[in-house]
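hi support,

uploading two proteins for the ticket. first:
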Amino acid sequence: MKKLINTLILLLIIFNIYSQNEAVIKPSEYNGALRNPLKGFTTRGLNNHPWATTAHDYIRWNQIENHETDGIEKIINFCNREWEDLASKNIKVIPRVYLHWSGEDQKYWPEDMQEDDYTSEQFKSRVVRLIERLGIVWDNDPRVAFVEMGIFGKWGEQHSPFPTAEMEKLVGDAFATAFKNKKVSVRRNWERFTEHPFGEYWDSWAHYDQMWEHGGGINKLNEETGRYKETYIGGEVAYNWGNSDIQPGPSPTQSVAIKKHRDFVINSIRWLHCTQLRWIDDYDRNNPDAAAGAEEIQKAFGYRYVLDEVRFSLDDSLRVSFDVTNTGSAPFYYDWPVEVALLDSTTLEPVWTTRMDSVDIRDWMPGEGWTDPEWKYVGSWQEYHPNENWNPSITTGWTTPPAVNRVEDKFKLDLPDGNYILSLSILDPAGDLPGVKFATTNYLKGGRHPMGIVKIGENECLPLPVSFQFDDPKNDNSLYYDDNFEIVYERAPEQEPFNGSAWRFPTDTVAAWQYDFMNDFQDEFFFSLDSANTIGIYGCNDTTGLNIRSYNDSVQYNDAAQFKWNQTAETFQKNGQWLEYTADFKLNLPYQLLLRARNNADANFRLTVLTTRDDTAYHRDFSLENDFNNRGGGNEQTDWFLSKIPLTGLWGEYIVRFDWYDNVGEPGIFGGFTFVRSYLDVDPPEWYYVSIGTLSRGTDIVVMTTEDSKVYLVPEGTPADSISIKNSALAVTGVNAYNQHKLPTSGIDQGNYVVYAIDDANNVSEPSPLITITAPVNAQRLPLNSDISLSHNLSTEEVTITSSHRFKQIDVFNIVGKKLKSINGTGNNLIFSTSGLNSGIYLVQVFEKRGMLTTKKIYKR
């Protein structure tokens, strides 16, 4: 008994020593929003924004792969070029690859694939290969926040068309395999790509017409699977269809500035555990109400870590523990470490740092069971709508509040005696730099949170002095991360050189039969093959009866050319697809292709110039008859042909590929070639002035260019080549440089148009901004449809339109015919607001899907 009493006394003494030595800090919560990584407002495109640390990047498939021969380096180079400055701004990207935007002229398939083919064997093979490459490039890229699957349908939103069940399985498996680190999201994961627990992007977030189906679908997914605990929920707010004016509001500015819209958006973020949204980011930042409302929304997005209490003590080890609560809407989704640091008490720079290895911040969960929207039954395809008069700020909250998370660890110190400042921070593993800010006023610029004083030598721990100066975390935009990382992948096999005795030119870089390389700077010739004789002496002259496929390296190139040299015609006969040479363009000049060819042939071929990293630098299909001038200088059968088209931007070492795809196996057509300096005009005309915007039919379009040219008015979407532009032109005029000229629009149909300028050298300008041509609306001349009912409530400023048939579109014009509003119809009942319109008479034009239209007149006081 005495021994037990002595032990208890000893324990009490030890506990008293530790208690006296322990500092207990209760940091004040920072009440404002925080610009924290991987959450919040997301920009559409790589733009700066006061809150956004994520940027959405739509990527066309043919930007990163336009042909099966394009290598993975093309994806790497594209990303490095596009995302070059993200790390310094502490921004990470959410990429989505797509094939189709919206219009029929906005499809971006690789040139060797069939448009709208989402099911063929070729598509299956290519899409899986692309996903594998994206995983190699993106899965360890610190610049990538999350990945949206995309690929299918308009905007990559996986509708129009929907992927088939087979493609869902194939592509879903490919993404799950390719991305082990980055979180991948899809659209409608509660019913599509269901074999994998992907995240969710909703493309009309908090939209009045989709809250029941899409919002309810995400909520059900969260309740049944806890999906938000493992991966992010996000997407885009939409303002251009249906009843978006009701909720989330008519515009991003109104969504954030007006309380009923802002509360509705915040409620949806809480309800569905949302991490990030875009389009709503495009609010008016100069509007004080919008700026204040945006901060309130930013505070609700994603995670928000409040430090409730911090404790630390020092004896033989430094013991640190703290309590943290996630008062946000979602967890953090990556394993970022918590750092404990001791700072120099004068410079505030870290002199000792370590990590709390037992901590996983992904476990710091928000509350659960946020109140559902107040539903009202409507009986249409949506079944239910949220009550538009519901005030969520009064009636909602978590069913289960967020838990307090306790973190603790101990560390051995090896520092000189002295006073140090203890700090906490959450590091971005990309450089191990402070990345996530706690929601506390205890903050130092650079991302660390000072908590108290540690006195080494005296083994004493104290709070910070009252005079200690904190920084405002909202005003600190100095955080960044390190984007220096390595992409590890299996490169294409190196070519095995021909081991024969072929003679080599001086400075040859590749000894294989497929490549010839020489420097010839005499006169204006910068690269040549010596009138094709090179082919004979370089191992390509198949005089032995064998063909090229007998050489050692041919097995690696199944489509390589096999050919026989025709000494008389000085051309060759071939049965394959392509032949390559290396070329070193020493001068930064425009070039023309000078080609030896048979003078009695009308042949086509494809010229591709690739960088040494296999990225396409130039690509064009040539017609010998249309694109070249015969310069003579050959023999009875052949001549030299000079291209009419200049090649620009070639400077340095490249690979030149000729694909002679006409008349495979017939007597040879092409021989040697060279590139000569071009004196052709290569600069397209530029716009000095263009009338843009909406013009009434009959109004002249005023144009001015920087050089003499012809200006063509064409429908929007016309291909930007001179032949298509000239064939599609609805109005043409010749212009002199910097002089005003007019294009008439009389007789032009209503629609969207652009103008192009083409100079005498056939250089094509950039398209002008969009020009919309309209005609005045006359209610007396438009057919009336008695099935359509329109009522205007002057007190609520709402117009209600009903019909026995489904709507297609509703347009609102002022009395002189200028279109002020356009609404895409859904269903056969629609309500829109006239707020913002001045007093006067307006015409409401209603189009039905069956082709009928009518116009009704309303008067606003």
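and the second one:
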Amino acid sequence: MYIKWFKDLNIKDIPLVGGKNASLGEMYAKLTKKGIRVPNGFAITAGGYRAFIKENNLDKKIKQTLKGLNVKNVHALSTAGEKIREMILSAEIPWAMNKEIRAAYRKLSAGKKHFAAAVRSSATAEDLPNASFAGQQETYLNVRGEKELISAVRKCMASLFTNRAISYREDKGFDHMAIALSVGVQEMVRSDIGASGVMFTLDTESGFKGVVLINATYGLGEYVVKGRVVPDQFFIFKDGLKNNYKSIISKRLGSKEVKLVYNDTQGTKQMPVNMSDREKFCLDDNDVIKLAKWGVQIEEHYGHAMDIEWAKDGETGKLFIVQARSETVKSQERVNVIETYRLKARGKILLEGISVGQKIGAGKVRVIDSPKEMKNFKKGEVLVTRLTDPDWEPIMRLASAIVTEQGGKTSHAAIVSRELGTPCMVGTGGARKVLKNGQPVTVSCAEGETAFVYQGLLPFTVEKIELKKLDKARTKVMMNVGDPSSAFSLAGIPSDGVGLAREEFIFTDFVKIHPLALVNYPHLADKEAKVKIDRLTAGYEDKKQYCVDRLAEGMAFIAAAFYPHDVIVRLSDFKTNEYATLIGGAEFEPKEENPMIGWRGASRYYDPKYKAGFALECAAIKKVRETWGLTNVIVMVPFCRTPEEGKKVIAVMKEFGLTRGGKDGLKVYVMCEIPSNVILAKDFARVFDGFSIGSNDLTQLTLGVDRDSALVSHIYDENNEAVKTLIRRVIKVAHNYKRKVGICGQAPSDYPKFAEFLVREGIDSISLNPDTVLKTRQNILAMEKKVGRRNSGFARASKILAVLALMFFALAVGGYLLK
């Protein structure tokens, strides 16, 4: 018996039907009853493959062809692979097996007009938790009729010996003849007139497990996997989903220029996507949420992160899961060290693209259009091509960096480069025209979601943070996080949350446009700024909503990464000269002699000249907390000069829908960075829920020193007793009024003695730069033990003195009574 229906299979049947088919059977048998739709089908067993190989006497011939093969010799690999595939394609499928396949096909297609099947390869060593053979073998779509089905089955069996499959098995140490191939035959979903794509139940760059990543395009899903399109991209916050929030914390519109559709009779063809469809998402929010919920259910069922393919039927509008396998790159990493790549200098930017890998690579360019040109490639060169597929894998292993013109974060190039640990840029339009063979370049994927190709070989460093398990300190150790794109990576560093997330970084990297330029877009005088705004806000009729969405997304990345720990988001604190550098900003910002102590922070939010811009900030925070469920976000007001000013800001926030202490418990902190914040600390404590000491500005304003001036920099010192006296006082007042007090300035990161002073004074939290968190946490633990011993010694001495005092008192009283 060579056929097994999905309903009769489970994940334990990998030796029988391979990883892909075993997983399809597992989901069809156990998850369809929970509402997850999986198209029906059957598997031709691995026993069928072995019978085919044996009856055609192919086993000895294959062994002989592979004997002594060096897979790093691209020409020899290609010759051997082609010879074996020709043997298989010219062989006959045994009569009994042929008969069974045809009967099963008739049963599957019975009563269905225009029935089409997907015929997929499924290797018996495929989709294991520690190895992924996904993409190594072939898939055939829109297969119609018994004759075409038999042909597709034979082609699948031959694809067990594609060049990339032979190379991969050698690399992983698998015996070629010990692995067999099962073939899955599955009813196709009409996604050719709908949409399809890939879903991962973690972030594919950092391995962060708190999100689901979905890539989507029009037509059949092969074009997402093969990287032929830049797909739409969605990130969904898992804990928000579990609490019934529509937590789509990021949406990126892909270009989606082409799609793969059914050919008229058999197979597939490429078609262009019309412009109106390109400029909108191919999935609505309800579809995204449903897919993400299914992804979480599938992950929970299997017990680990999953790589899932899905399809949406264009006729019925229904969603289906068509494949699921274990994610085998990021989920398998043992993260003991976090590496951070940093450029020492930047050069001329030649190209921009989508970042994959968070690393930097440099070398000479080698533009290649076809795998046939692989012999020209030298180890350490930068591979530049239109796209890659599994045939490219032998050469990808030699590259210092990879640049493709097409594809997204779940394309073949992206997935393989992550596994290889090679920096990769995808969706880099025009790369083959701009870059020339032999040209020295640096490819940086370490600067957020956008990657850059720089001219020349630039110097860079690799900083390593060793992760250690430490005891929990009484003093919370938090982190300063500026770049939302790095938040998922930083989530692996043990911390108690984020003590400072600056909105300015989000504005600079995510929004880029001055809020008032968006509010006043129709009347904007700066024509050049208007052109830039049009490009950035494509698809937004309401330009203000672009600011809300992008600002919310930046906050959400940080808040999701550290959920459920507190994430303190500081409202925008640009100075007027800094606001003016945002697109369209010069039109709305006055010129000040001393912006550092001018129109900044709290004084802007209630001012009629900026209030409409502040409304967008409030809308973004409201979206993050109320729509997406990231209620761990605490709002912090910077540069608030007086308690009355604080009350005005709280009132304006309420006007825009953010009520301090409302139904979702919103907390509002104030930056303690002006001497008035300390002098009037008890009054500020009545207005706000907590304090965060900004030691940089507090030192500057206490000592009357411009911290940017080299002439007086020798006076600037956070350890100055005047500064420490103010800090000591605000900690005491805050605690008297039962308010939290932390510090987010630079000093604790730089000066261990300063950190010890803070611990001794009983500060609630210290927020540090990521690279100093672990070291400072160790120091704080030691300090707390030291302070604890000192305090306990003092307590013991106090108790002894108290007992002695009581004894003397008793003796005195006794003597008096005796008299």
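thanks. also noticed: The longest helix spans residues 773-818.
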